[in-house]
Input
Amino acid sequence: MIQFILLFSRQGKLRLQKWYTSQTDKSKKKITREIIAAVLSRKPKMSSFLEWKDLKIVYKRYASLYFCCAIEQDDNELLTLETIHRYVELLDKYFGSVCELDIIFNFEKAYFIFDEFILGGEIQETSKKSVLKAVNDQDVIQEVETPQGLIDEY
Amino acid sequence: MKFPDLSSLSNPVRLRDLIRQIRSAKTAAEERAVVQKECAYIRDSFRDEDNTWRCRNVAKLLYVSLLGYPAHFGQLECLKLIASPRFTDKRIGYLGAMLLLDERQDIHVMITNSLKNDLNHSNQYITGLALCALGAICSPEMSRDLGDEVERLMKSSNVYLKKKAVLCAVRIIRKVPEQFDIFQNTIRSLLSEKNHGVLLTATALVTEVCQQNTQALHVFRKLVPNLVRILKNLIMSGYSPEHDVSGISDPFLQVHLLRLLRVLGRNDTEASDTMNDILAQVATNTENSKNVGNAILYETVLTIMDIKSESGLRVLAVNILGRFLLNTDKNIRYVALNTLLRVVHADQNAVQRHRATIVECLKDADVSIKRRAMELCFALINSNNIRTMISEMLEFLAICETEFKADCTSNMFLAMDRFAPSRRWHVDQMIKVLTTAGNSVRDDIVSSLISIISLTPELHGYAAHQLYKTIENDITQQPLVQVASWTLGEFGDIFVSGQYKKPENEDNFQISEEKVIRTLEHILNWSISTVITREYAINALMKLSTRFPNYTNRIQSVMAHYGCNMNLELQTRAVEYASLFTAHNDIRANIVERMPILINNQTNNGEQAEPVDGSMEQPSLIETSDDVPGTEANIFDILNDPIQTNGNLFDLDGDNHNTIPAMIALDKNGLSLTFTFERQDTTLTITSTATNSTPYNITNFVFKAAVPKTFHIELYPANSTTIPANKAGELRQEMKVSNPNREKLRMRIKLSYVLNTNSMSEEMELNAFPEQCYK
Output
C-alpha cells in the first residue's frame, strides 16, 4: 500500500500531497521536510530508492518535479516506478504536454485525476482510457452545472 | 506591491488570480501578507454563509494549505459543500475533507451521514466521490457504520463503483479486521470478473484478508488454480491496447497476482506445486529490456523464493537476480542485491556463482548498493574463498566511506575467525585491517587480536616483529598502536632475541632493546595518543622492566615522571608501578611475568575475558564495558580481576549457606567481618558482611582480597562504602573463588577505612576456612 505521495519542485516547494495514513499536521510537515531534504540531496548516480524509517521511498524526477511515493516493505519498488510513470502519463494526456505550472494552477484537477487512479493507497484502474474518461465525464457535469465555472470564472 | 481590491464581496478573487498573486510575491513576508488578507476575506465569507462562492473559497484555502498555511477553519465548510446538491461543491468538498480532515478530528464523524447519503446516490460519480473519501479517511467508527453500504456496492453490476467499493473494503478491514465477516461472501465471486480494475482490486482485497486471517487463508488457498488460470490468460492473451505497457499486458495486475500467489503458496507444498509451472513460464518469457518487465520478474523471484518451490525453480530465480546485477539500471541492481541478501543463507551455492559480480558492486556509486554488496560478500565467505574475499574486502576497506569501516572490520574479523587457513595469515590480515581502517575499528577487535596472538606461541615473535614495523613510523592509528604496545610489552624479549620465525626476506632484521623502549616511550609521551593507548604503553614498558634488565632504571624514571601526570589513571598506575621498583621490588618479576594464554569470549556487552593469574588488569577489558572508570583496579588486588560493574551477579540472598558454617574473618576495633559461604563444585561464593559496633560511622571502606596462584578470585562491588555506627546496618560484598585443584583455601585480605576521621587499615592472612569450602 502507498502510505503517502509527495510532489515537489527542485527548490523543495510542495505541489501536491496525499496521505493514506492518519497523521497530525505537525507530523506531516515534519515528515515532508525530512523526505524532501533527503531526496533533494541524492546524487544523480544513486538509485531511486531510499530507506526511511520502516518505509521504502521511491522517487523519480520528471522535468522540474519530483514524484515521491512511500511504500511498505512488502511492496514492489520497480512497480511503484511504473505507477508513478502511469500517473505522469495520465497528467500528460489530460493537460496535453503537462508541465509544473499546469499542476500549480490546476492542483485540484491533478488531485481528481490521482483519485481516479489510486484509492486508499492501492491502484484501482489500470486502463488509462477508463481513468481519463471518468475524469472527463465529471468535468462535463461540472461544466453543465455551472457554465461560467465556479472556480475558474471564464 | 499591488493588491486587488479584496474588500469587495461582489468581486472576489478567482483561484487562478490568487495563485498568481502569491507566486509574484517577492519575499516571504509579501506572500504571507497576501495569504493572510485572502484568508481573512475567506473567513468572513464563511461566516456570512455565502453559498455561491463557498467552493471557490475552499479551493483557495486548499491551495494555501499546500504552501503550509493553516486551513483548519475550512473543515466545517467542506462538510457543507459535501452536503450541497451541486456536483462541483461535492467534488471540492470531498477533496477538502480528504486533505483537511482525518480520523483524529471529532468533526470527522459528522461526515458519516453525508457519506451514507451519497453512497446511495443515483449519480455514480457522486457515489464514487464518497467511496474515494471513505477509502482515504475512514475511521474505525465509520468502518462499522458504513460497512454494509460498501458491501452492497461491492455486489453492484457497475464496475466503476465495484472496484472502488472493493478498495474501501480493504481499508475497512485494515482498520477493523472483524468487519471481514461482512465481506467474506462477496469476495470469492469477484475473482471471476473480467474487468481488470475489479480483478486488480479484488486481488488486493484477498491478499489483505489472507495476511490478516489464517482461516481465510486456508479457504482462499483453494483458489490457487483459478489465479493461475487468470495469470496464464493474461500472459497468453493478445495485445490489449487498453492495458498494455511496453508490450506487456497489464503488468500491475500480473504483479498483484504474483504477490497473492506468494501469500497463498507460503508454507504450503500443494499450493506451491500448483503454481510451479506458471512461475517458470513468467520467469522465462517475460521481456526484460525495460523496467516494467523487470518489475514482474522481480515479483516472480520474490514469490519463488518465499514459497516451497522446487530447487530448479529456485536456481532459475537466483540466476534472474544474477542477471539483474549486470543490468546497467542501478535500481535493478539495488533490488537484486536486496533480494540476494534475503535468500543467501537458504541458497548459498546458487548465490556463490554470482560472487564476482557482487564483488564488483562494491565499487558502485550508490551507498545503499555498496552496503548491500558488502553484507552479501560477508555472507558468501567460506573456507574456499576466504583468501580472495579478504583481499577484496581489504581493497574495499581502503576506499569505502567511514560509516562502513566499523561494520566491515568487525565482519572481516568474524570471517577470519571462522575460516582462517592459518594463524599466521590471520594475524597478518588483521594487522593489515588495522593499518587500513585507522581509528574506525570497534574496541573489541583490539582485545580479540591480542587474544589470537597470545593463543599462538610460535607467532609471538613474529607478531611483535610485524607490529613493530607498522608503527615504527606512524603511531596515529590507535587500535593498531594498542595491539602493538601490548605485543611489544609481552614479547619484546623474544623479538629482540631474534629467536623466532621471521617474515620472508627479513632474516637479517635485528632490533635493539633501546629502539623498542624508545618507541613505547614515544607512544606514551605523544599527546595525540589517546589515554587508552597510553595506558597500554605504560603497561608494556612496565613489563619490559624485567624483560630488558639493562633498562630497569630508565623505565623506573619514566614511572617516576608519570607519577605526577594530570591524567588520574596514568598517575595511579605510574605510582603503583614506581612502588614496584622500591617497596615491592621482590614481587615485581611475578607481577609482570608472561601471561598464560588468554581465552576471549567473543561477545559484546562487556562480557570480559577470563582473568588470568599473575596478570595485570587489561585496560581493554575495562574499556569494553561502557563507562567503567576502572579506578578501583589496583595492583594490590594482585590476583583479582577488574571489578565488573555489570554487577548483576550481586546476590543479596545470603541465606543459602546452611551447609557450610560461617566464619568470622575479622573482629577488631569494633569492625566485624563475617564470611558466609555457598559452594557449587569448585566455585565458592563468599559473602562478606561487615558491621560496625563503634559509635561512629565507618566510611570509605575498601576491601581487597588475594588468593594463591592456583586459585582464582573475582571480587564484586560492595553495596556501599559506609558501615553505619552501632550496628545500624551492614556492608555486604560478594566474591567468587574458584578452586579447581580443591586445595586448602588461604586468603590474604586488606582493608582500609576511615573511622572518626582516622584512617585505618588492616591486613591479615586467613587460614581457617571451614573444610567444606574446598574439600
In short: The first helix of chain B runs from residue 15 to 24.
